Write a sequence for this structure.
């Protein structure tokens, strides 16, 4: 499900205990946004924005598009859940699990 | 002294802003401005960080009434505010909630209240009052400040409105996805509506679903003030937007194919505004129909051996275009691309030489360069950095960069290398950096 992007050299074993969906979404985030980090190093509870991975609103928009394409979940910020959704990889995946249509 | 009114034709009961589904009228706004103006501290400059568009405007207007100048920092990066603390030490901040801002005393704008005793006198602001100071990153490491008089903001708003056919007798409501803390957002989402007695949505929708619901919250006719990025998101998401009279796009060139898709998908017209911080909005075009830009009334274009510049009655001196342009007719020009030192990432303009200087000032960095790859595909192209910093981790350099540059310019990714491919004269050519990038991709493909 992850589209072809720049290949990476990480090994696939996460140092954290990630679910299959979390591992997939971590790869999606790193590939979509060209981050300087191996997906396996994303801490599931680490904030995605600001002081955590340092993502910004353009990243949020890019991510919302690929998440909508891959999982059919349309993110909106006036949903009280959304602030919590983007809090961390884990919360993002919980929301995807709950709202996904594919 | 010549003055211009805070806002356009006054109808006390006409709606100025839609905030969380509530209509705020012009007379309500007047009372809010009057009340806040009495409370503001006695200081010359204010940094207005308020995110709610209506409350930002109340702060901005109250500052004008008090003869204060609003500073528009290029970002909220600690380095940007630290620079303001050095250059404008006697400033204060207006904030949304109880957040504390380093370096400055912070004040919250009180809850909106209706004062029945409001005399409803429209404030008149001297046209030569410096209403805002905006900043661009200079090429030498220090930001350059650009002071805008109240008269220039009013003139640009009125001439943009007349170009776009806005009439006070036929009010529209503006929904904007752009922040009002930068020139385009301030001009198009605040000055444009208030100078025509019109309304705006106080929020700032981001995702396509947000744009749809924000538009649905306000009455028709509506105008969407946005960027190529948000237009692409709405088109890609297949959004079904409520009808908009037209879409106004700025901050980066809009591809004609995307403009055409947006016109078809949303059954509307798409116009672009061209401008830059030093001059403000200065030209428009209907993207699907025109390559050339038509300057706003009152602006003249000049070409000489040094390049193209523009002049307007509200500009103190002619201003050179930062982009490569050629003049086609007295009031029309064509845009050919960026100047070689200029980058524009998500609407944030920066200078490569300034970014390189900041990168090389970081402790442990021996050599380093920022590089903007060619645009590939529809998403925003970010900067890349090649850095020589023995013993340092990429994350260490990124953290240091984060405090001194606009986060929009943080490299994606930052490549650590043993040395940079400088040629015999010590220069780095674009070709050599492209080659380096290609090698890195090849290396990754082979798992080395």
């Amino acid at each position: 499900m992850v589209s072809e992007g720049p290949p990476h050299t990480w090994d696939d074993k996460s140092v954290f205990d990630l679910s299959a969906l979390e591992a997939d979404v971590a790869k999606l985030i790193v590939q979509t946004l060209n981050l300087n980090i191996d997906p396996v190093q994303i801490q599931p509870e680490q904030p995605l924005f600001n002081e955590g991975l340092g993502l910004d609103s353009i990243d949020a928009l890019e991510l919302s598009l690929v998440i909508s394409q891959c999982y059919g979940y349309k993110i909106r910020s006036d949903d009280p859940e959304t602030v919590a959704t983007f809090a961390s990889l884990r919360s993002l995946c919980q929301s995807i699990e709950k709202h996904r249509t594919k | 002294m010549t003055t211009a009114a805070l806002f356009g034709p006054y109808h006390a009961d006409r709606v100025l802003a839609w905030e969380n589904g509530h209509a705020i009228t012009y007379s309500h706004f007047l009372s809010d401005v009057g009340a806040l103006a009495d409370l503001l501290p006695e200081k010359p400059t204010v940094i207005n960080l308020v995110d709610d568009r209506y409350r930002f405007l109340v702060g901005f207007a109250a500052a004008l009434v008090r003869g204060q100048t609003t500073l528009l920092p290029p970002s909220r990066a600690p380095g940007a505010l630290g620079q303001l603390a050095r250059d404008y030490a006697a400033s204060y901040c207006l904030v949304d909630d109880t957040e504390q801002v380093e370096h400055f005393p912070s004040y919250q704008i009180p809850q909106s209240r209706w004062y029945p005793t409001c005399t409803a006198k429209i404030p008149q602001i001297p046209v030569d009052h410096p209403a805002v100071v905006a900043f661009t990153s200079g090429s030498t490491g220090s930001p350059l400040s650009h002071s805008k008089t109240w008269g220039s903001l009013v003139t640009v708003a009125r001439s943009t409105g007349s170009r776009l056919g806005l009439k006070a007798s036929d009010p529209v409501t503006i929904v904007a996805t752009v922040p009002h803390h930068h020139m385009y957002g301030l001009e198009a989402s605040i000055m444009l509506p208030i100078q025509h007695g019109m309304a705006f949505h106080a929020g700032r929708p981001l995702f396509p679903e947000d744009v749809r619901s924000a538009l649905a919250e306000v009455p028709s006719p509506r105008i969407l003030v946005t960027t190529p990025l948000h237009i692409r998101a709405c088109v890609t998401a297949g959004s079904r937007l409520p009808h908009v009279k037209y879409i106004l796009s700025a901050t980066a060139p809009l591809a004609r194919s995307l403009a055409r898709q947006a016109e078809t998908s949303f059954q509307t017209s798409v116009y672009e505004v061209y401008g830059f911080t030093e001059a403000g909005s200065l030209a428009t075009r209907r993207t699907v129909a025109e390559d050339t830009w038509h300057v706003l009334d009152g602006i003249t274009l000049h070409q000489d051996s040094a390049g193209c510049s523009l002049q307007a009655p509200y500009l103190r001196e002619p201003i050179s275009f930062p982009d490569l342009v050629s003049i086609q007719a007295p009031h029309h020009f064509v845009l050919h691309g960026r100047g070689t030192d200029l980058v524009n990432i998500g609407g944030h303009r920066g200078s490569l030489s300034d970014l390189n200087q900041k990168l090389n000032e970081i402790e442990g960095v021996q050599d380093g360069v920022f590089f903007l790859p060619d645009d590939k595909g529809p998403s925003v192209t970010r900067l890349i950095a090649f850095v020589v910093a023995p013993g340092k981790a990429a994350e260490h350099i990124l953290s240091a960069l984060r405090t001194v540059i606009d986060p929009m310019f943080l490299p994606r990714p930052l490549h650590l290398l043993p040395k940079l491919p400088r040629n015999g004269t010590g220069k780095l050519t674009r070709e050599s950096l492209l080659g380096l990038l290609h090698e890195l991709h090849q290396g990754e493909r082979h798992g080395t």
